[in-house]
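Standup notes
- DV: blocked on the single-chain target, sequence here:
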Amino acid sequence: MDNRSNIIPLVSAFAAAYHNVQSDNPIIKDEIITKLISGDERRQIESYIFGACDIFAADLKAKANDERELMSELVRLQLASLPMERQRFCEEALATAARSGTTQYVVLGAGLDTYAWRQPDNSRLQIFEVDTPQEQETKRARLERAGLKIPDNLHFVPCDFLSENLGEELAKAGFKSTKRTFFSLLGVCHYLDVDTITKLMTDLSHLCTNGSSVCFDVADNEIENANELRSRNMVEMAKARNASISYTTDEFSLMSQLEDTHFMVYEYADSNELNERYFADRDDGMTAFEHISMALAVMKDAQYVNTKERILDVSLMRFSHDGYEAVSVKDIADDLSITKGALYRHYKSKRDIFDTIVRRMQSMYSELNDAVEHGKNAVETACGLCRRQFEFWTGEGFAPQFRRMMTLEQYRSEEMSGLYAQYFTDAALNGIAAVLEPEHKDDAVTLAFELYSPLLMLFSIADNDRKRAAELLEKHLTDFSDRFTARKKPSFGYNTNREFGKI
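- DV (later): unblocked, structure below
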């Protein structure tokens, strides 16, 4: 507790925990953070905060009737807003990214971040927490003390990401540069200079594919001369830790600064916008932290190893729109603003590109099938598998474009017809039948046929109205679950209770 460089993250965690306990309507609900701070630490942090009141919150101290009231006021009006609002903004952006094809989440400077223990039950994310070895050892000890198990999809990455090779350390933990990734960088940028931030963002663009994003918070240009008490306190407390607010910006300056990093500003929310989002309906006096803005940047046209990835992205987009046969290597090169010779340095031919796309899909589809989530019975498990199929093949990203390409190509050759069957008919039906068979041996294939068949139509509906398609899917799954026990075999006029073609 005597190390001032470590006290601020603990104070932020304490404020988040206190806010969750005291408020009936927390900015972000986090019941885990309260378990990571011991009673002794809580008392030491309270003592530290009370000791700083004469300097940083004399007015609040003078008005409070006792220490309990003072602590409540300090947390509510001074300490909780910033960590809560940036975490909520980040996790809302992460949820949107996950629905759009993001499969990896990297928490830079994770500290006591608790998302991995609060993640949705249906989360498909692989989570990588990056922090120094010392900080991660401390966190592991806290988790063990609290009786919290490490989730299967969480990977600790011991690394000082500002001075060590982040890419190498992430790769050791199973990180894939070919997958769309969401990075969070919270509470860090204020204390870095512009060159360090530019280098860091460029390095991140080298680690992931197009469509990846990074969420971070920045101080505005007025914070050094702010009138608001807590903004002045933030500046002074940084100086007390032998640090300073080194980086300030505004939306347009940030857009310009990121131009050469291959990231573009997708969303920028200043304190006024954050007030409207998260604090407008509160009756406890909490407001967004002045002079701090949240930013979400999305990667476009990254170079480095992503040249090969860009070729795949553009090729698949072209194939899904025009069909494989109609697209030439020159078309792909022109879309990328590179020469055919430059493209051939990465892929030998258009067929080589196509084969790489197919291999990528085989890997992604295997991961989908390997992660079957078991329900209370076979029908619930099968319905869950159908739901995953729908999520996988609709929306945005690699898989939906592959589906559109194969829909166009299935009639062009026996090979393409076989690939279409592999992913959208025979294999899917066989997979669902295999799930149903242990409990419904006699009619597993019939049930699989009835359960899965509407998905092909729903895929098409989703291309124009995904929300409506998702609603229809849920109705279909609910009806099927409610009625399957009393179901009789339907009279189709032909025998559907047979084994579909094996792949």
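- Follow-up: DSSP finds 23 helices and seven strands in the chain.
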